[in-house]
Q: What sequence folds into this?
């Protein structure tokens, strides 16, 4: 791996394969672990359906709960901004769609690159502000463990390197593009074994909450 | 001989006038040079004055492991134009493709030029230098390495023309059977300008020489030793097809509707995003066209190791492997492992339930 081009070829070849294997196997193991374990059968007479309330809760819990918004508006708003910014950067940037189309055959329209650029800049600033808040707020700091900082880092690095690559702030280009891909591979490897799994498990958790409440005939 | 001496001592201005180039034509060239090198218009008179007075510098052109494409590029372009005349009016004392002399006479010309212009001549190199075996490439029985070291010793500067001389190029491509290296791998004590490209744009070669004639120094260089004025921006950033990239409109094949409409060639393997060169602005053949305009993606020929950059027709950032097939196999493995982990958890839970001892009222009454 003597040249930046060799580096790029490695990260998009063997490096990507390794990350993909770990990501897919890791996510499936973690999900099956939860699902196979199951729940004890509920013998009580159901007082309502599970499907409707379960699905509804998956959606409604996306909206902020009034209490937490009042108590910690910065955390809630910052959380929204960077999650949405991250999704826009990941799924609406044309080269990313191009990558997904070339590998999975799925395609959808993107948005202009300069708009994604602005969103990415806001997302990066928000992520830094969120880290600052985590470090400076005594309660947040007390509640944070190493995993919180690791997950912040592996989420932040793809955003940062992507921004650097788009603006060609590191020379030569194959190096910065390779760093960007490598940072995503790091995210893929860390993902299944940390709280980043919430990207999949949030659906199961919300569904269960809603379905359980629905079965008991109470509001979820 | 007297004629030769006159030619040698003539200034560029005198020489151009003798060749019938008008003052107006000369100034037009100076203006074009200034704008090409991103210099302010106020520099035009300075360039004109400097070029007018410039003595024709001696240039020794060494061709090593190369295909003569670089020489073809510079000789066939913009002809006849003032650029060609400028090229005529450097004193090209050795160039084994173009010179009339052959054999010992040719080598004598090189040695004479080196001797007469000690410390002042420019060495232009095209082609890479084989290090594995000196016999892989020789000229008049002299190995490329020996000739380069000998000739460069008394040079003012070295211009590595073409990607082979600048970065090793095609001979350096994997598995590099001759142990080919670039000029900068061998020469460390002289200023080197890398004019990369396969071949480089002729105007860029003449631009570098014009800069040397004008300022007596080499232009500002990038991290790879290339003149910033020509290699400062990527093909992608200056490409007229860029708006299609930003909109996500790509040609899928070389003759589909997208290709006919001039959409972006990224999917067809265009290396524009990683390539720094002036093709998109300077173009080729007197500004007629350039590779992307003619419908083919950029090969990235002005970048190091472009032959080994994952295939000319593979997009830059797309992983090589067959992801869907691989993901299917991996997912099956994941399901097996996940089911095993789930079963293990179930059995742990069942064991915990089985070994659970119920506490009765009597147990609570017991005093230990």
A:
């Amino acid at each position: 791996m003597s040249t930046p081009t060799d580096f790029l070829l490695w990260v998009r070849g063997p490096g990507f394969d390794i990350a993909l294997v770990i990501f897919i196997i890791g996510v499936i193991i973690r999900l099956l672990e939860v699902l196979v374990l199951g729940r004890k059968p509920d013998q009580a007479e159901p007082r309502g359906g599970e499907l409707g309330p379960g699905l509804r809760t998956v959606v409604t819990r996306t909206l902020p709960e009034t209490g937490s918004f009042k108590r910690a508006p910065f955390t809630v708003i910052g959380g929204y901004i960077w999650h949405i910014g991250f999704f826009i950067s990941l799924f609406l940037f044309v080269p990313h769609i191009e990558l997904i189309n070339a590998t999975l055959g799925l395609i959808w329209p993107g948005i202009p690159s300069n708009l994604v650029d602005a969103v990415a800049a806001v997302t990066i600033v928000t992520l830094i502000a969120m880290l600052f808040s985590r470090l400076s707020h005594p309660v947040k700091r007390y509640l944070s463990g190493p995993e919180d900082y690791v997950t912040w880092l592996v989420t932040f690095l793809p955003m940062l390197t992507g921004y650097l690559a788009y603006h060609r702030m590191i020379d030569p280009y194959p190096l910065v593009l390779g760093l960007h891909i490598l940072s995503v591979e790091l995210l893929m490897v860390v993902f299944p074994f940390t709280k980043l799994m919430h990207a999949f498990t949030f659906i199961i958790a919300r569904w269960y909450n809603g379905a359980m409440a629905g079965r008991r005939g109470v509001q979820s | 001989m007297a004629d030769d001496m006159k030619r040698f001592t003539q200034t560029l201005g005198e020489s151009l006038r003798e060749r019938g180039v008008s003052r107006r034509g000369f100034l037009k060239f100076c203006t074009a040079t200034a704008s090409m090198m991103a210099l302010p218009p106020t520099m035009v008179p300075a360039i004109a004055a400097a070029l007018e007075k410039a003595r024709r510098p001696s240039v020794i052109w060494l061709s090593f492991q190369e295909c003569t494409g670089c020489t073809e590029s510079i000789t066939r372009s913009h002809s006849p134009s003032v650029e060609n005349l400028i090229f005529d009016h450097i004193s090209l004392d050795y160039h084994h493709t173009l010179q009339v002399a052959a054999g010992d006479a040719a080598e004598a010309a090189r040695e004479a030029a080196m001797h007469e212009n000690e410390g002042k001549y420019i060495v232009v190199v095209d082609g890479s230098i084989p290090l594995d075996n000196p016999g892989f490439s020789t000229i008049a029985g002299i190995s490329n390495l020996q000739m380069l070291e000998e000739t460069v010793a008394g040079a003012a500067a070295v211009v590595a023309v073409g990607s082979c001389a600048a970065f090793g190029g095609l001979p350096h491509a994997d598995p590099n059977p001759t142990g080919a290296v670039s000029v900068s791998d061998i020469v460390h004590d002289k200023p080197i300008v890398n004019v990369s490209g396969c071949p480089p744009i002729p105007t860029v070669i003449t631009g570098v020489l014009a800069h040397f004639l004008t300022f007596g120094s080499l232009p500002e260089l990038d991290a790879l030793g290339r003149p910033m004025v020509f290699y400062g921006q990527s093909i992608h950033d200056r490409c007229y097809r860029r708006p299609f990239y930003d909109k996500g409109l790509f040609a899928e094949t070389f003759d589909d509707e997208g290709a006919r409409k001039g959409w972006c060639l990224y999917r067809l393997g265009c290396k524009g995003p990683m390539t720094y060169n002036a093709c998109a602005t300077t173009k080729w053949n007197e500004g007629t066209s350039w590779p992307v305009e003619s419908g083919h993606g950029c090969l990235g020929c002005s970048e190091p190791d472009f032959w080994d950059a994952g295939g000319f027709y593979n997009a830059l950032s797309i992983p090589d492997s067959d992801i869907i097939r691989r993901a299917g196999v991996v997912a099956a493995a994941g399901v097996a492992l996940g089911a095993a982990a789930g079963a293990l958890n179930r059995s742990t839970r069942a064991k915990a339930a089985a070994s659970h001892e119920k506490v009765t009222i009597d147990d609570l009454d017991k005093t230990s």
